[in-house]
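Supplementary Methods. Inverse-folding protocol.

Structures were first reduced to a discrete structure-token string of length 334. This string, shown here, constituted the complete conditioning input.
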């Protein structure tokens, strides 16, 4: 049976994902998925940081639900690879397949339930997909009980909090391995700082946010990540140009809509952010910004001391058929 690993990621982050996968053998790629050859130790896949979810998969023209029902070991083999020695983590399962309620699928569910003593549930640890892709039927089983983009350190979330895999991607443009100091302006729940600290715990990491309550949530996440000794959070309003030292790197997930105070003007806020960044960044320093309000930011950047060296256009699903289109700007202070 030809088995492979299928990885899903946020559209727009392919170059970051490919960089993280450089040790693996690629089979195919699309805007939001990459398939790689099954590595010897596929458990290493679980520590990838830029992807959303990882699946072990197989595909063939004949693997339709009727065929799988008669050859249950095809699916059983994938399931066993995922749950072996991890039975405590996988307590529930769900098959996602067009026409889920066919008799064949009901029989396959019964088989899984009995063979692996695992319960069927809508929100499941073991996610199984049976999909027709082109001429082939593809069967895939998610390798982890939750998407890999869900991190254990996130005990507190805020509205507008950044996905950790996007935070990881932003940090890949910061040359963290060779930086000594990193400021995250509008640090919120601390995602960018934590992902940076996990890459290089020797960088001086400072977060700045106006909201005391948000800052205490960030501290909870930072403690859970085991990084409380290396990340400092400052409470301050960017309009008051808080006093900080100079930094090699600044990152930011800019506030928008609901996250700014009533009556506050985004243009003014972004202008102040860029002016402040010019002041506290060392010359030739790196600024990486994530925003959905990219038109406002780009105009301000064009009249600043920053040069845009790269732009990434992302596409993030919010609800069914609805997307956010944020951009990442990678800039250097000239
Ligand atoms: C988009 S959120 C940042 C989310 C963060 N990246 C995360 O993953 O949790 C924007 C943050 O900007 C902060 N903020 C808004 N106006 C501010 C100001 N004038 N000065 C400093 N922080 C401000 C808000 O408190 C909020 O936490």
């Amino acid at each position: 049976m030809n088995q492979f690993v299928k990885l899903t990621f946020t559209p727009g982050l392919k170059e970051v994902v490919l960089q993280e996968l450089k040790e693996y053998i690629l089979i195919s790629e699309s805007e939001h998925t990459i398939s790689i050859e099954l590595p010897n130790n596929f458990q290493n896949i679980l520590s990838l940081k830029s992807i959303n979810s990882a699946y072990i998969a197989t595909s063939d023209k004949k693997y339709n639900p009727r065929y799988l029902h008669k050859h249950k070991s095809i699916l059983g083999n994938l399931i066993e690879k995922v749950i072996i020695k991890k039975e405590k983590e996988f307590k529930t399962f769900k098959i996602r397949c067009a026409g889920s309620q066919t008799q064949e699928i009901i029989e396959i569910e019964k088989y899984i339930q009995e063979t692996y003593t695992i319960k069927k549930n809508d929100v499941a640890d073991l996610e199984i997909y049976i999909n027709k892709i082109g001429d082939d039927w593809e069967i895939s089983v998610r390798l982890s009980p939750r998407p890999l983009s869900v991190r254990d350190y996130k005990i507190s979330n805020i509205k507008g909090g950044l996905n950790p895999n996007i935070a990881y991607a932003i940090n890949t443009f910061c040359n963290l391995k060779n930086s000594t100091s990193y400021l995250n302006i509008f640090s919120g729940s601390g995602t960018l700082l934590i992902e940076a600290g996990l890459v290089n715990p020797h960088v001086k990491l400072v977060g700045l946010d106006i909201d005391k309550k948000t800052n205490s949530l960030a501290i909870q996440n930072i403690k859970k990540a085991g990084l409380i000794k290396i990340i400092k959070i400052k409470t301050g309003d960017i309009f008051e140009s808080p006093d900080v030292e100079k930094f090699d790197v600044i990152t930011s997930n800019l506030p928008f809509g609901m996250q700014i105070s009533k009556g506050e003007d985004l243009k003014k806020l972004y202008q102040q952010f860029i002016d402040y960044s010019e002041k506290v960044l060392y010359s030739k320093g790196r600024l990486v910004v994530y925003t959905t309000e990219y038109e406002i930011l780009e105009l301000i950047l064009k009249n600043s001391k920053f040069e845009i060296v790269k732009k990434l256009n992302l596409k993030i699903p919010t609800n069914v058929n609805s997307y956010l289109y944020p951009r990442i700007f990678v800039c250097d202070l000239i």
